[in-house]
Design goal:
Layout (H helix, E strand, L loop, with lengths): L1 H10 L3 H14 L4 H13 L3 H14 L4 H13 L3 H14 L4 H12 L4 H14 L4 H13 L3 H14 L4 H13 L3 H14 L4 H13 L3 H14 L4 H26 L2
Helix pairs in contact: 1-2, 2-3, 3-4, 4-5, 5-6, 6-7, 7-8, 7-9, 8-9, 9-10, 9-11, 10-11, 11-12, 11-13, 12-13, 13-14, 13-15, 14-15
């Protein structure tokens, strides 16, 4: 009964209440891996990852043969920045259930950041075959293929992700980067603008659109998007330096244009 109430509250977005009920359920049935797994998920949604990790480890200990519990453990480890441990756990999940779509996707996704691009593509392709209707799988497969310079294949993946979820801004951004690399400026502009339309607060979309405008000698319009992207991406340190440099370049280009107009 407690587990049902917690699931209901979780679906109703009452995360704190769901966690409280599941904590109570786990105290009554500390040997129930299903309840422990649900409790860990509730803690994860509340961003209480250290607590979630301990509860999820206990769920795995109670029933180590369930691939989904290992997959959920890997998600928590990744959230804590422990990528190598997450990869190891995901390999265990796939040993237990080779056709676990989420584990294949998550492993492929993490491997793509570890330099193992070929292996990454292998797992992402399998995930796409197991779950052809998951836009995020198509998105991440496309990104991995792009890293292999298989741009045409990547484009098809991004198009499929957009077909499945038209409002996926990151798919539009990734598609724009592919078109820009192929020197298809009109298609790149259209993709970046569609990304902004889908998600006005996406820093990548504004920055890449601004950078392309800057390349094409349109510093005034570029500055609008570069400043917006810099502001939106202020919480992402990896964006601060390049976007600041692009803003400086656009300001210098705009100042130069002003001087040329004053001194024809």
């Amino acid at each position: 009964g407690l587990w049902y109430l917690a699931e209901r509250d979780s679906l109703a977005m009452n995360g704190a209440m769901a966690e409280k009920i599941l904590r109570r359920a786990a105290s009554i049935r500390p040997d129930n891996a299903v309840v422990l797994d649900s409790h860990a998920a509730a803690l994860r949604r509340l961003k209480r990852l250290d607590e979630a990790l301990e509860v999820q480890r206990e769920a795995v200990r109670r029933d180590p043969k369930v691939a989904a519990y290992h997959d959920n453990l890997a998600v928590i480890l990744h959230g804590l920045g422990r990528r190598d441990e997450a990869i190891s756990v995901l390999r265990t999940a796939i040993q237990l259930d080779p056709d676990h779509a989420h584990a294949n996707h998550n492993l492929g996704y993490l491997l793509s950041f570890s330099g193992n691009i070929d292996e990454s593509v292998e797992y992402l392709r399998k995930a796409a075959k197991l779950k052809p209707d998951m836009a995020v799988v198509q998105l991440n497969l496309g990104r991995a293929l792009k890293r292999q310079n298989r741009v045409d294949e990547a484009i098809e993946c991004f198009k499929e992700a957009i077909r499945q979820q038209p409002q996926t801004a990151e798919a539009h951004v990734s598609l724009g980067l592919c078109y820009e690399g192929k020197e298809d400026r009109p298609a790149a502009y259209a993709s970046y603008r569609e990304a902004i339309k889908s998600e006005p607060g996406n820093p990548n979309a504004h920055c890449f659109l601004g950078k392309l405008l800057l390349k094409d000698g349109k510093p005034a319009e570029a500055l609008v998007h570069l400043r917006k992207g810099h502001e939106l991406g202020s919480q992402y340190p990896e964006w601060n330096r390049p976007s600041a440099e692009w803003i400086k370049e656009a300001e210098e280009q705009l100042a130069k244009e002003g001087m040329e107009q004053r001194n024809p």
